Amino acid sequence: MKTMRHSIALILICFTAAGILMLSGCKKDDETKIAPALPPQDGFVMNFNDFSNAGDTLKSSQLTDTYNNWGYAYFNVAVWNTALTVGLAIPVASFVEAFNHEAVYHPNDNNWTWSYNFNVGFTAYEAVLTGAITGDSTSWEMRITKAGAYSNFLWYHGKASIAQTGGYWILVESPESPNDLLRIDWNKYSDETADIKYTNIKPGAAENGGYIYYGTSLSNFNRFYHLYNKGLNNNTDIEWSSTLKNGHVKDPHHFNSTAWQCWDYSLQDIVCP
């Protein structure tokens, strides 16, 4: 009888240990199947919203006010904003919509997919965003389908650190012109500043190598745009305060000078301090 009790106790211990091991194994397995975080939206979509707009020049009642310095800076930013808003409408809409959906894990491929529909204007599209962890980074691919036109077109791909400190995207021009068009590089730093750069990489294009670079800093002028016009081999540098709205712009080709050209908190031209 005593031997039987010992045997039963031993069996119970074995089952308990096996259960613990199974639970532990399941927990570990589940943990490996947690979907990677999507890269941040501001690492894909450049911020054009915190720069002053034309309406801000109406705050002053003085008829002699001039806004040439700020106006030139605004014009350059607006040109890029318009071009990117139109040219990247489908990729941007597809990426932003991903944040409204959950990922599905595919064990055979060891990756995750976000599958959903989205619209640009009155046109419907299907998107499949795939993420696969490789080391300390996640590789991303976005395929887009438009019924009756193209299917699973690889519109952009890239890589981002799992820690969300930086990454890049490569965007293709369109299904009709499937050549590389734009490279997006983004970074987030420990001091909470960040930057993002759009570079033209279209093969054979006159502006291949041209870019717009936006970021935040800890200086008094805590926002900046650096623009490079490849055709003119010219840099336009813009720095301003996101709170006071004053700033300065430098453009050797436009101003025939390498000196900064300044504007005050009401966007009016001033002599630089």
The largest β sheet comes out as: 14 strands, antiparallel
Note poorly predicted spans: 1-31
Tell me how many strands there are. 14
Structural class: alpha+beta
List the strand order in the largest sheet. Answer: 1-2-3-4-5-6-7-8-9-10-11-12-13-14
Quickly count the domains.
1
Roughly how much helix do the residues carry, as a percent range?
A: 10-25%
Average pLDDT metric = 89
Rg is 27 Å
Q: Terminal Cα separation, in Å?
A: 99 Å
Number of separate helices:
4
Q: How does the overall form come out from the CA principal axes?
A: elongated
The arrangement of helices and strands along the chain is: HHHEEEEEEEEEEEEHEE
Please report which band the strand proportion falls in: under 5%, 5-15%, 15-25%, 25-35%, 35-45% or over 45%: 35-45%
Describe the structure.
The N and C termini lie far apart (99 Å). Strands 1-2-3-4-5-6-7-8-9-10-11-12-13-14 form a 14-stranded antiparallel β-sheet. It is α+β, with helices and mostly antiparallel strands and 273 residues long. Strand 4 and strand 5 (150-161) form a beta hairpin. Helix content is 23%, strand content 36%. It contains four helices and 14 strands. The longest helix has 30 residues, at 2-31. The chain has one domain (41-270).
